[in-house]
Specification:
Blueprint (H helix, E strand, L loop, with lengths): L5 H14 L2 E4 L12 E6 L2 E10 L2 E9 L5 E5 L12 E7 L4 E10 L2 E2 L15 E4 L3 E2 L3 H9 L5 E7 L5 E6 L5 E8 L6 E4 L5 E4 L5 H10 L5 E9 L4 E7 L2
Parallel strand pairs: 1-12, 7-9
Antiparallel strand pairs: 2-10, 2-11, 3-4, 3-6, 4-5, 6-7, 7-8, 11-12, 13-14, 13-16, 14-15, 16-17
Length: 246
């Protein structure tokens, strides 16, 4: 079947609606402390649902995200998984710029929702590295928060989840997570690659204003790389330059 087959798209959209998934941003731990049992580090990147399903006797898998104008983006993929995954498995995950997929929450597993036990996923792919994030008890929040703020890992917040509902709560650290980064010039105007201090590529920078654009164009007239501070922009899921430093 073609990726553009309307039958597949309708099947995926109807399946997602049946799960009643809802994502909410929070600012205070008190908003979720009596609702959620677990907190999980949230790596910066694009948010996806990884879905395994069966349609017309065929096994299918895809990565699903909401793009601009609330239009779903569906990318069909080939994953090596046990056949029972195709009974209906939906995983909430983040895909980083280095093609690592961090799975933060199991919404449905082999047709079963409201998972009450730890699941050891068995997923592999030739393109993506699959990482199942460790769950931390909600009581470990303060310690986890401290470790994230002092970490060099590309973490921009915390997911809060519960086994009893399909809400996924997210607390961002965009106001606190500022990194010393390196911008690398490309052949395109306003397109710069972002690297952290360990020279790991984080993606393409978000240039927010005309003044920022002109400032960077002037700086890059004499160099191909620039040291700069960046914060994580949670709306565009990109690192945003905020200040140059020597």
């Amino acid at each position: 079947m073609s990726i553009n087959d309307i039958t597949i798209k309708n099947h995926i959209n109807n399946y997602i609606k049946s799960l009643h998934i809802e994502t909410k941003n929070i600012n205070n731990i008190n908003d979720v402390i009596n609702i959620c049992e677990y907190c999980i580090p949230y790596y910066s990147g694009d948010i996806y649902l990884m879905i395994f399903f069966t349609i017309l006797g065929q096994y299918k898998a895809c990565l699903y995200s909401i793009g601009t104008n609330n239009i779903p983006n569906i990318t069909m993929c080939d994953f090596a998984v046990p056949n029972n995954y195709y009974n209906g498995t939906c995983l909430y995950c983040t895909k980083s710029s280095d093609n690592t997929i961090y799975i933060t929450h199991i919404l449905s597993y082999c047709g079963i929702t409201h998972i009450k036990k730890e699941i050891k996923l068995n997923i592999s792919n030739d393109v993506y590295k699959i990482v199942l994030q460790k769950k931390y008890d909600i009581a470990e929040y303060d310690n986890l928060c401290h470790n994230i703020k002092n970490s060099k890992l590309n973490i921009c917040g915390i997911h809060f989840v519960s086994d009893n509902n399909k809400h996924v709560y997210i607390q961002y650290f965009n106001c606190l997570k500022v990194i010393d980064a390196i911008l690398e010039k490309t052949d395109n105007v306003d397109v710069y690659y972002v690297y952290n201090s360990d020279n790991n590529k984080l993606g393409i920078a978000y240039i927010s204003t005309l003044n920022d654009s002109l400032f960077l164009q002037e700086k890059f007239k004499t160099t191909d790389k620039l040291n700069i501070k960046c914060k994580y922009n949670t709306y565009f899921n990109k690192w945003q330059p905020i200040d140059c430093f020597q």
